[in-house]
């Protein structure tokens, strides 16, 4: 999976981010342990989740 950067995540809509998060999760689950693909997917999930958290309404 291609790494989703923080900048790229910030430029996507919330709906697109949810779709990318699903893709990243599936890529993470399918990639061999210790592979670049797995690390990219994990970092992508982190970047996407961080961006989604900034958009969530505060409590």
What topology emerges from the helices and strands here?
Elements: H1 6-10, H2 14-30, H3 36-55
Helix pairs in contact: 2-3
Q: Can you count the beta strands?
A: 0
Average pLDDT, all residues:
95
Whole-Å distance between the termini? 34 Å
Order of helices and strands: HHH
Percent of residues in beta strands: under 5%
Key words describing this protein structure:
3 helices, 59 residues, single chain, mainly alpha
Describe the fold and architecture:
- The chain has 59 residues and is mostly helical.
- It has one domain (6-55).
- Helix content is 71%, strand content 0%.
- It has three helices and no strands.
- The chain has helices at 6-10, 14-30, 36-55.
- Helix 2 packs antiparallel against helix 3.
- The radius of gyration is 12 Å and the shape is elongated.
- The termini are far apart.
- The mean pLDDT is 95.
Question: What does this entry show, briefly?
Answer:
This protein has 59 residues and is mainly α. The protein has 3 helices and no strands.
